[in-house]
Amino acid sequence: xxxxxxxxxxxxxxxxxxxxxxxxxxxxxTMLRLKQPSTSSELxxxxxxxxxxxxxxxxxxxxxxxxxxxxxxxxxxxxxxxxNWESFFKNLIENGELFVKRAKISRDKSxxxxxxxxxxxxxxxxxxxxxxxxxxxxxxxxxxxxxxKVLITESRPxxxxxxxxxxxxxxxxxxxVIVDNAVGYVLHKVDKIFVGAEGVAESGGxxxxxxxxxxxxxxxxxxxxxxxxxESHKFVRLFPLAPNxxxxxxxxxxxxxxxxxxxxxxxxxxxHFLDEHFVDFTPHEYITAxxxxxxxxxxxxxxxxxxxxxxxSKFVIPTALKELRFHLSQTGEASVPLRSFLKNNYSNIKSQxxxxxxILIRESFGVPPTLTARFERGEEVKRxxxxxxxxxxxxxLKELLKK
Length: 403
Prior knowledge:
- By secondary structure, this protein is an alpha/beta fold.
- It folds into 3 domains: 2-104, Four Helix Bundle (Hemerythrin (Met), subunit A) (Up-down Bundle), CATH 1.20.120; 107-309, Translation initiation factor eif-2b, domain 2 (Rossmann fold), CATH 3.40.50; 316-401.
- Helices cover 55% and strands 10% of the residues.
- The protein is built from 21 helices and 10 strands.
- The chain has helices spanning 2-14, 20-35, 40-57, 62-78, 85-104, 106-114, 131-142, 160-170, 183-186, 212-221, 257-260, 264-268, 272-276, 301-311, 316-330, 336-344, 346-350, 357-365, 369-375, 378-385, 390-401, and strands at 122-126, 148-153, 175-178, 192-195, 199-200, 206-209, 226-229, 279-282, 289-292, 295-297.
- The strands form 2 sheets. Strands 3-2-1-4-7-9-10 form a 7-stranded mixed β-sheet, with helices on both faces. Strands 5-6-8 form a 3-stranded antiparallel β-sheet.
- Strand 1, helix 7 (131-142) and strand 2 (148-153) form a beta-alpha-beta unit.
- It is found in: Cytoplasm, Cytosol; Mitochondrion.
- This is Translation initiation factor eIF2B subunit alpha.
- Residues 330-403 form the Ribosomal protein/NADH dehydrogenase domain.
- Keywords: Cytoplasm, Initiation factor, Mitochondrion, Protein biosynthesis.
């Protein structure tokens, strides 16, 4: 299990653009592929123990916890669906790998949703270095040819603002580094503020590089829009009410090699407070909107999305649809695993809010468009499933698929 810690770090080292939640899930999937548990209880114990190892090995484990918890919910959800262990384990590994692939492109999706917020001649304030914020700025400049200027805070004590400035300069985007204390001084000429996030709490508040909270307060007083650009896999089940509710974390040990180069000065002259406080909490009332791969959300929508994640696995339905299509083509009848799936997911299938799934199925899981197009008729599906038992649901879906 100790190797999981090194596996996680090796993923981060090999790919500087990989985030902690993705690296955590990829290391857990790799562990399962190597360990090959033979029972569901062994599987759950193995995943639980390795998650604890990962969390304890990373001082700043907020975003890592989000990925680990998401994977654990996925495992628990799937154990009740398949009657055949080999089929279940194979699908678990495959869907874990699919999640990693989908999560990797979520940064680009967040950036796509954020591009319309950038207008010509905007002056944008950015705090610290965020991969997704950089991707957004780069996309707006290179693809939309938008002209804008970026002001970047120094972001002490890590000084990651200099890394952001270096990357923006290399990309040909006009930028200027300002000291953290000058935020209030320059805010009158700033049009909007973009920040990333280490994690997004249930309340819609964010955990990010220290200094984000005071920028949020200044933005509120000066009526400047404060946007958080992040990915949905960083939504975490925490409910801090104030910065003091966050655990003490030595953030410096979780930086990539590239980011650490800009923190050498800090290491030489750090004090006890800065050793432990590298992130702060910005409450939801200071945030204008969260720009995510799910779209542009209000802070209050985060709890709703977390509920959806906890009550429904985004990987189960596409996999079951694949099984449904295969078994219908082979036998013309719904399989036993499928009936089990329908029984356990009856309310999810009937729920109108889950008819966004066809897009997810088509884009992320490669199910033929003809199949998903039939499931886009949400009202028709809902009407046909109303009042049916699991066998009736299977027959109704079978009928819809043949249309």
